[in-house]
C-alpha cells in the first residue's frame, strides 16, 4: 500500500529518467491522469496512454529526451504538499518555479491545473508539486 500516491508517481518518472527508460508504467487514478495530461500539454512528456485492466488501470508514459544530448525534458520533480504537511496557496501568493520556466501543479476547487491557470481563474488550492 502506498501512503502518498503522488510522490510514488513522481518517483517512478524520476527513476525511469535516471535509468534512461523510454516508457514508464504507473498505476492509474483520476488525479494521476490529470497530472499526466498537464505534463503532456506543457511538453514535458512525449505521449501517454491510459489502459484499463481488471483492477485500477495503468498509465503508460513515453518520456521525452533531447535527440542530440540525450538529456531528459524534465530536470526536476519536487513534491510540495505531502500527507504530513499540506501546502495551500492563494492565487496571488503562488511562487514562480525556476523564475517562471517551470510549472507548479495545483489542486483547486475547479480541478487540477497549473499555477498560471489557477492564477488566471483567481482560484487557490493545494500545491501538489513543482516541475522544471
Structural notes for this entry:
The protein is an alpha+beta fold and 132 residues long. The protein has three helices and eight strands. Strands 4, 5, 6, 7 and 8 form a five-stranded antiparallel sheet that branches. It has a three-stranded antiparallel sheet with strand order 1-3-2, covered by helices on one side. The radius of gyration is 15 Å and the shape is globular. It starts with a helix and ends with a strand.
Percent range for helical residues?
25-40%
Global Rg: 15 Å
Instruction: Count every beta strand, where a strand is a DSSP E run of 2 or more residues.
Output: 8
The structure class reads alpha+beta
Share of β-strand residues: 25-35%
General form: globular
- SSE sequence, one letter per element: HEHEEEEEEHE
If you average the pLDDT, what whole number results? Answer: 94
Question: Are there runs of 5+ residues with pLDDT below 50, and where?
Answer: none
DSSP helical segment count: 3
Largest sheet: 5 strands, antiparallel
| End-to-end gap | 28 Å
Short description:
With 132 residues, the chain is of the alpha+beta class. Helix content is 25%, strand content 30%.
Features:
five-stranded antiparallel sheet, alpha+beta, 3 helices, globular, 132 residues
Protein topology:
Layout: H1 5-18, E1 23-27, H2 30-41, E2 45-51, E3 58-63, E4 77-79, E5 88-89, E6 103-108, E7 111-114, H3 115-121, E8 125-131
Antiparallel strand pairs: 1-3, 2-3, 4-8, 5-8, 6-7, 6-8
Amino acid at each position: 500500500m502506498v501512503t502518498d500516491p503522488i510522490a510514488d508517481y513522481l518517483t517512478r518518472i524520476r527513476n525511469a529518467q535516471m535509468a534512461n527508460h523510454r516508457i514508464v508504467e504507473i498505476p492509474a487514478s483520476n488525479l494521476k491522469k490529470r497530472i499526466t495530461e498537464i505534463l503532456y500539454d506543457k511538453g514535458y512528456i512525449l505521449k501517454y496512454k491510459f489502459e484499463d485492466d481488471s483492477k485500477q488501470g495503468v498509465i503508460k508514459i513515453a518520456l521525452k529526451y533531447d535527440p542530440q544530448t540525450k538529456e531528459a525534458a524534465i530536470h526536476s520533480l519536487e513534491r510540495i504538499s505531502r500527507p504530513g504537511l499540506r501546502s495551500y496557496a492563494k492565487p496571488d501568493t503562488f511562487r514562480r518555479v525556476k523564475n517562471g520556466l517551470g510549472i507548479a501543479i495545483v489542486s483547486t476547487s475547479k480541478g487540477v491545473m497549473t499555477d498560471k491557470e489557477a492564477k488566471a481563474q483567481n482560484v487557490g488550492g493545494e500545491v501538489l508539486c513543482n516541475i522544471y
